[in-house]
Write a structure and sequence with these properties.
The complex is a heterodimer. By secondary structure, chain A is mainly α. Chain A contains 9 helices and no strands. Chain A has helices at residues 3-14, 18-40, 43-60, 70-92, 119-138, 141-153, 157-164, 168-186, 191-199. In chain A, α5 crosses α9 (191-199) and α6 crosses α7. The longest helix of chain A is centred in the first third of the chain and has 23 residues, at 18-40. Chain A is globular. Chain A starts with a helix and ends in a 26-residue tail after the last helix. Helix content of chain B is 76%, strand content 0%. Chain B has 4 helices and no strands. Chain B has helices at residues 2-15, 29-73, 89-114, 119-139. The termini of chain B are far apart. The chains are: A mainly alpha, B mainly alpha. At the A-B interface, α2, α3, α5, α6 and α8 of A face α1 and α2 of B.
């Protein structure tokens, strides 16, 4: 969405214009759902959280400060809604995991590319997605939160760290550690899956070896501060 | 130090491409429609509450203006202000203003309460306020 169009949408949404509010749900709904789904592991719960997120958005949009980024504000609300849900769930006790194993609603989330004629390629894509989903589900909640928030919000890590209320170093260390786990989860797979796993190859130092929030270990060839 | 953070951030950003292979279950159209309905209903409630407060304040201000005008036109008591009175006229005016504010707030809350009666009621209230605004602006 262009900046001026986005500004116009936000202005009209602040005025509680019904069309603008419907557009906000339409533009951000799927990404908020994705975030909620990865954080809760349930499509049904995620739908409830999407509703709760947008309800809070409309209730507080009058106080939204347009000097910040709208996405950052919206995803902060979404993350808070998911955290509130996690707290409530923790009080109630353990619940079931992801809807359909670790891969989610596989009947609706077929990662096979319909344009790809190669059934082997489609099978590889499906397996890669399932492995990633399973890997994500096994991450600790803070590690999964930072990855999911970065992935679905599209915000830079600095803003993700701000949303989560942690230093940038902590957010990066968590993301690094989480991606390393995912890369390992992709290892051992052949063909396309292995290629995907290679994207996560270690190109830099391992900040997760240090304490969270502390300066990162020097990367190979990195200059000293 | 900042350069190291930048390098690490770049590195992690590159690794984030790993997640491009992740496919999510799509948000159901029904779920998004429900979310939209909830948002629109809430927006209408907020608009009605704002309009109720606006009109309550406007009515209160008009009443205050009438009372003030009536007070200014009334003849002063012989011998000036009653020295036995414990309330200063300025204080009286302030109390009057506080009472108006309270009344406005109560009226606004009352309009908010009515939203619990259902969607159609809120629609009617909003229409009433809109018509009121239109008829008054036409009269000027």
């Amino acid at each position: 969405m262009g900046e001026s169009r986005s500004d116009d949408l936000q202005r009209r949404a602040r005025e509680l214009d019904p069309q603008a509010l419907a557009e906000v749900v339409s533009v951000y709904g799927a990404r908020v759902f994705g975030l909620a789904y990865r954080l809760t592991g349930s499509a049904d719960v995620a739908e409830d959280l999407v509703q709760e997120t947008f309800l809070r958005v409309v209730q507080s949009i009058g106080r939204y400060d347009d000097r910040g980024r709208f996405e950052a504000w919206l995803f902060r609300i979404a993350a808070n809604v998911a955290r509130d849900h996690a707290r409530r769930s923790a009080r109630r006790g353990p619940t079931a995991g992801l809807d359909a194993g670790a891969g989610g609603r596989t009947d609706e989330s077929d990662p096979a590319d319909p344009r790809a004629a190669d059934p082997l390629e489609n099978a590889a894509r499906r397996e890669a997605s399932e492995r990633l989903a399973a890997g994500l589900a096994r991450l600790s909640a803070p590690d999964r939160e930072v990855l999911a928030l970065r992935h679905y919000s599209g915000l830079p890590f600095r803003e993700v760290a701000s949303i989560l209320g942690v230093p940038l170093g902590t957010a990066l260390a968590r993301a690094h550690r989480a991606l390393e786990h995912l890369r390992k989860a992709m290892e051992g797979a052949g063909g396309a899956i292995a290629e995907i796993g290679e994207i996560g190859g270690d190109e830099c130092g391992d900040p997760s070896r240090g304490a969270e929030g502390s300066p990162p270990a020097p990367a190979t060839g990195a200059r000293s501060p | 130090m900042n350069e190291r953070w930048d390098e690490l951030e770049d590195s992690v950003e590159r690794r984030m491409r790993l997640l491009e292979a992740l496919y999510d279950p799509p948000a159901s159209a029904e779920g998004l429609r429900r979310a939209t309905d909830v948002v629109l209903a809430e927006a209408r409630r907020i608009r009605v509450r704002r309009k109720a407060r606006f009109w309550a304040r406007a009515a209160g201000a008009a009443a205050a203006a009438v009372a003030l005008a009536a007070g200014l036109r009334a003849p002063a008591p012989p011998g000036g202000m009653d020295s036995r009175s414990t309330v200063h006229p300025a204080m009286e005016l302030e109390l009057w203003a506080i009472a108006l504010e309270e009344t406005s707030s109560l009226l606004g809350d009352a309009a908010g309460e009515r939203e619990a009666n259902g969607w159609s009621d809120v629609v009617e209230i909003e229409r009433f306020f809109d018509n009121l605004g239109r008829s008054l602006s036409m009269g000027t």
